[in-house]
Amino acid sequence: MKTHIKEFRAKHNLTQEELADLVGVRRETIVFLEQGKYNPSLKLAYDVAKALHTSIDKLFIFD
Amino acid sequence: MIGNPVWFSPRKYSGWGMTPNCWQGWLYIAFIALPIAILGQFTLPGNWSTYLMFAWSSIFVIDFIDIFSKMKRDERDIAHEALAERNAMWFVITTLAFSLAYQAAAGVVKGVNQVDPIILIALFGALFVKAVTNFYLRDK
C-alpha cells in the first residue's frame, strides 16, 4: 500500500502531531500510515481523508 | 479520580499494567507506597494496620483500573495489544494443559488424584471468558 498522506499534509501545513490530534490517534500511527506500513480501518482512512480535505481513493493506493 | 492517564504508558515489554512516563507518575507511585511503608513501621491496636493498608490499597486498585481504562490507545495500539495478549494466552493455556496432563498421568501411576483444582479453575474460567466475549461480539 502507498499513501499520499505526506503530500496532502504538507499542502495543508499540518505536522504529523497535528494530523494525529485531528483524527484521534498517536503520532506513531501517522508515521506508519505515511510509510504504508499500517493498513488503517475504514473509519481511520475516512477520518484522515476528511482531515486532509480529500477522498480515500486519492490518499491510499493499493497495489 | 486521583491519577491522570497521561502520567502513565501501558507496559509492552516488561509485563502487564502500566508504568510512569513522567515525574508526576512517579510521584503518584510514591504517594501510594509511602503511607504503606510508614504504616508497616508502627503497630496499631487490634488489626487496624491491616484494615488501613487494605483500605488504602483498595482505593488505588480502583484508581489503577480507572487510569488504565482511560489511557489513550488508538486502533493500532489496540490491535497490537490484542495480538500480544492472544499470544501470551496461548502460551499460558498450553503450559496449563501440559501441567494438567502431567499431574493426571502422575496421579494414575501413583493411584491418587493429584490434579491441582486451581489449574482446572483457570482453564475453565478462560473457556467461560472466551465464550462470553464471543457471545458479546456475535452481532458487532
Secondary structure layout plus pairing:
The complex is a heterodimer of chains A (63) and B (140).
Chain A: E1 2-3, H1 5-11, H2 16-23, H3 27-34, H4 42-51, H5 56-59, E2 60-61
Antiparallel strand pairs in A: 1-2
Helix pairs in contact in A: 2-3
Chain B: E1 8-10, E2 18-20, H1 23-39, H2 48-70, H3 75-110, H4 117-137
Antiparallel strand pairs in B: 1-2
List keywords for this structure.
heterodimer; A: 63 residues; mainly alpha; 434 Repressor (Amino-terminal Domain); two-stranded antiparallel sheet; 5 helices; 59% helix; 6% strand; globular; B: 140 residues; two-stranded antiparallel ribbon; 4 helices; 2 strands; 69% helix; 4% strand
Q: Any overview of this molecule?
A:
With 63 residues, chain A is mainly alpha-helical. The longest helix of chain A is centred in the C-terminal third of the chain and has 10 residues. Chain A has a two-stranded antiparallel ribbon with strand order 1-2. The model of chain A has no long low-confidence stretch (mean pLDDT 94). Chain A is built from five helices and two strands. Chain A has one domain: 434 Repressor (Amino-terminal Domain), CATH 1.10.260.40. Chain B has 140 residues and is mainly α. Chain B has two domains: 68 residues, no CATH class; 62 residues. Chain B is 69% helix and 4% strand. Chain B is built from four helices and two strands, in the order ββαααα. In chain B, strands 1-2 form a two-stranded antiparallel ribbon. In chain B, a hairpin with a 7-residue loop joins strand 1 and strand 2. The longest helix of chain B has 36 residues. Chain B starts with 7 loop residues before the first strand and ends with a helix. The model of chain B has no long low-confidence stretch (mean pLDDT 91). The chains are: A mainly alpha (63), B mainly alpha (140). At the A-B interface, helix 3 of A face helix 3 of B.
